């Protein structure tokens, strides 16, 4: 096949353009929702199948459980904001304090927090001029860029002078809760909700069924931006800067197409290798992830973990994700084709971790037509086997995976590897019908140990020892 040259287009210009979900005027028959209206009351009064049009402006602390087949559409500039504006700060020594803060969101998975975040899993975030502050555990730890929530006294303390700044505290746990079917949400900005870990600002703790969520900007929510369920479509959304993760979900026939996922997984303090990054789906059948841009997330760009089967990843662009590009973990049959990767996995380059395409205890995956550029970090295509037990569709083993017709570029002599490794039953892995062939490798020297088949080899030794890549080509940079 003919290999395309690496895509060097800057990430910002690769974002999917919105298809016009916002509307200048309310659609015919729509219920007009003002910024001070009670959205839940209006949705209940409108009944199933109604269209609700949110006027431009900030709809603050609104949370709604839709009825079947309702449509929520926004005027340009319509913002659903789950935070309370904080005013009335008073000076307290070198700090500033405001009282009356009785909110206390649900705390989940606190044991999965990073050491530097002692209050990971506390969704009660504080923002100054749209930037999240880092919570601390005591007043003594307070410093610029941090806040202390004294829950016993219902007070929030900051070190930075709040005068002249917009200070907000996340209060509402969700904008839209799942439960109804056939709901459409479009053209809205959804921000600053105190969504608990693993819960969505859209979807909350019940993966929506048959929803269409399109052309929204979803940002700065504590947990997950959007949660998807069976027959749900996520189309053309810009999902960025959410605390734990951009997208999540489970169910059958989910479509994720044309979205931009950026800079998710940082401010919650949850370990992104437990759950985080651009997107993570579990227990899906027929998941399609197509033509998305996932970049600069903390963790994996796209991740299927636990009993996913019949998955398709195609046409996606993954760039600068710290943990790697696409990870298909303890899952089954999938196709990963025609995606492009650059600079993923720089945070975890050891062994074959941090691969642009990582197949981890998964079987029957076909990987072809992908362009992987390891400039700036990470590994290429890695098959990894560990002792992970059995799942819904058979054992969690790395078997029957076919890697062919891909372009892999490793421009540094001491970085970037491809192949198969195991820390459990290596002999079984190497005899399990995994194959590499018809790939093109671009490296600086054939003598460098870029190829792994249980152990690391140079080009000729690898092919002789493994029998892999017999029809592949090597190009020296």
From TrEMBL:
Q: Which Gene3D superfamilies match?
A: Single-stranded right-handed beta-helix, Pectin lyase-like
What SUPFAM superfamilies does this protein's entry cite? Answer: Pectin lyase-like
* Domain annotation Right handed beta helix: ranges: 211-348
Q: Where is the composition biased (Low complexity)?
A: 10-29
Which portions of the sequence form the region Disordered?
1-29
Tell me which InterPro entries the record gives: Beta_helix, PbH1, Pectin_lyas_fold, Pectin_lyase_fold/virulence
Superkingdom field: Bacteria
Pfam families per UniProt: Beta_helix
Mind telling me what this protein is named?
A: Right-handed parallel beta-helix repeat-containing protein
What organism is recorded for this protein?
Answer: Paeniroseomonas aquatica
